[in-house]
Amino acid sequence: MIDSVNEADYPRLLEVWESAVKSTHDFLKIEDFEFYKSQMPTYFAHLKVYAYKDEQGSIRGFLGVADSKIEMLFVDDAFRGTGIGKILMNFAINELKIDKVDVNEQNEQALGFYHRLGFKVVKRSACDEEGKDYPILHLERSDSVKKK
Length: 148
Prior knowledge:
By secondary structure, this protein is an alpha+beta fold. It is built from 5 helices and 7 strands. A 7-stranded mixed sheet has the order 1-2-3-4-5-7-6. Helix 1 (10-24) packs antiparallel against helix 2 (30-45). It is globular and about 40 Å long.
């Protein structure tokens, strides 16, 4: 089930984020990991965040969106590969009409995931939005790219 979240869910979202990032972002420096971790509640507050909850109501993954862009998508490492990411993406694409996402260039697993869902790289930035030295690939769904 996908449901919107509130501030009371932030601690669990942070746990999911930490689990996911530790298993997929091995390129992050420790001090940058700690910086982003400290910023996550602020990021959450500026996004519309939706969580995937299991039958018991436990959050297993989430996505944060703004306008027509996915700003974050994370699945608890213990549940990666079970289809939760795809369920969240299908929700974003079909229900929220999202057609853009950014991904760290070094995160090849995520890049492959987005490619399989029809996203294509349209631009590259040398640094992330915090000005840190992590290149970002800006992706759009193929349908959107064709319309331009």
